[in-house]
Amino acid sequence: MTIALVDVRKTYNISGSEVFALDGVNLTIPTGEFTAIMGPAGSGKSTLMKILGCLDRPTVGSYTLDGQEVTHLTDAALAATRKKKIGFVDQNFSLLPRMSALQNTTIPLIYAGIGKEERYERAEQALLTVGLDKCLRQRPNEMSDCQRQRVAIAQALVNNPDIILADEPTGNLDTKAGDEIMDVFSSLSQQGHTVVIVTHAPDIARRMCRVVHVRNGRIVRDDKI
Ligand code: ADP
Ligand code: MG
């Protein structure tokens, strides 16, 4: 079991009153599963993804990742776990405008302290994986939305994480581009990555092997297809 959340709660304090963003979530995701998270706006999907991605911690509850309890790790240890195990594709990905696709993809490796030659080799490999090997030198403004999203996925892949998390990665794309991006995630799943994607689109969720429905900070349905 890669991911196990037990009775996870997340509370935000907004000017004195408490908001229950997650209100008792139990979720296990085995290695290699291809899972969609669906639910209305404000239901807690992004909060859940940030906790899964070790970008935030539960207020209460347990998160075991590859058998290790991560809720009590120091900030530095949590960040190290994230770098090693998780690739996160954010809703609002931002590529550096003056850098090529290849240079943008090397950025996570700079933070990981990898030498230049290896950075460029691995970035090129990641861009090949997402089907952008013909666009290595292009800058973000010379690419389509779909291509830019592929670069963001390459950035998430370049540290070779077991787990890929994506928060509405097709939200700003047209249907055709969305389908192409889903093909990329599908093939990552087939290569053995554990992939979890937040989506609003039932068409997209239908392509996955499991759909978890969230409402008011709770899991209300969990369909395995
Ligand atoms: P979703 O991604 O499903 O739209 P979120 O996880 O972003 O939902 O938000 C769930 C609830 O938690 C919402 O009521 C939201 O306003 C609140 N929330 C999320 N993040 C924060 C934050 N950083 N500070 C305060 N409230 C937050
Ligand atoms: Mg969200």
In short:
With 225 residues, this protein is an alpha/beta fold. It contains seven helices and ten strands. The chain has one domain (3-220): P-loop containing nucleotide triphosphate hydrolases (Rossmann fold).
Protein model, in words:
The protein is an alpha/beta fold and 225 residues long. The protein has a single domain (3-220), classed as Rossmann fold, CATH 3.40.50.300. The chain has seven helices and ten strands. It has helices spanning 45-52, 75-85, 101-111, 116-129, 145-157, 175-190, 202-205; strands at 3-14, 17-29, 34-38, 60-65, 68-69, 86-89, 163-167, 194-198, 210-215, 218-224. The strands form two sheets. A six-stranded mixed sheet has the order 6-7-8-3-9-10, with helices on both faces. The chain has a four-stranded antiparallel sheet with strand order 2-1-4-5, covered by helices on one side. A hairpin with a 2-residue loop joins strand 9 and strand 10. Helix 3 packs across helix 4, helix 4 crosses helix 5 (145-157) and helix 5 packs parallel to helix 6 (175-190). The longest helix is centred in the last third of the chain and has 16 residues, at 175-190. The mean pLDDT is 93. The chain binds adenosine-5'-diphosphate and magnesium ion (MG).
